Amino acid sequence: MLVLIYYPTFVLSPGVLGHLNMLEMEASNLKQQDLRQSSCEEELNATLQALLRKRDQLQVEIKANTSLQKMRSLLDRTGVPCERNEDVDDQEDGSDNSQLLLMMAKHTQLKDLLHAHHLIGGYDVLQTRKGKGVCVSLATAYEGVYLETYNLEIDLGSNLRICRHNIPPFIPLERLVTQGNMQTDIRDFLDTLSQYLNAYAGRKQQLHLTKEIHSSVQVAESNALCTILVLMFTVPGEKAGATLCTLQYADHTQCLPTRVNIQSEDTALASSPQWKKNQALLLETPLHTALVTMKKTGSIA
């Protein structure tokens, strides 16, 4: 016997389905809003913590800089730091903070002195005659070796005037004063004078090293400014023999010659390819260094 069972069928109207979909979308949107709000709160909290840490760091730096400035002020006024001073906050006698502040203050003082030294062109300047004049020291050097130091005492009147100096007489000091316009640009004047002095010291040092290193090379002639050098050396070969090499320094602000002339009993020597190279070498390389190369290549004995 076949029994048929019928189940009732519920039909949802379109209006009910639409309402359910809307509720589901609202629930999803609320969930996403909660997630976004939670994420935003976390970001804001992280930003707040970072700003608080930055604030604390700035407060520490401000406090340290204030103490450093007070320590530096003590150094500038007295030249000797005060180990126990009520003006410096949280400074304890012999404490690590006190020693660190002292080192930092000395470091900033040294940096300021070096900066001032750089601004005046690297020249040492001392007051003379109770501030009515200054003494400027110009040190010379060549290849990293300090040589002579020259001094100028300048009167600080209505017009700058050189009172005393130990500049060599063959340096055109008066002409440099006029050309450099010392009244309006003293640094330019000092820079130009320093070029002349360093070039002179460099030429003289090259001559000294040539005599010291190259015993086979004879200096036949030289002037006080070392702008003309006549060297005599032996060139290997039957025809060459003794050879004269004249170096002329027309530019007195440079250490290298502007002209090199070769004289030899062998009239073809000066125009030979090897000696053309030697002439170029002497024009571009310091004398004592060029002679070493020439000896290695067999150009001179």
From TrEMBL:
Localization per Swiss-Prot or TrEMBL: Chromosome, Centromere; Nucleus
Keyword Nucleus: yes
UniProt GO cellular component terms: Mis6-Sim4 complex; nucleus
Domain of life the protein comes from: Eukaryota
Major location category of this protein: nucleus
InterPro entries documented for this protein: CENP-O
Keywords: Centromere, Chromosome, Nucleus
Family statement drawn from the similarity comment of this UniProt entry: Belongs to the CENP-O/MCM21 family.
Protein name: Centromere protein O
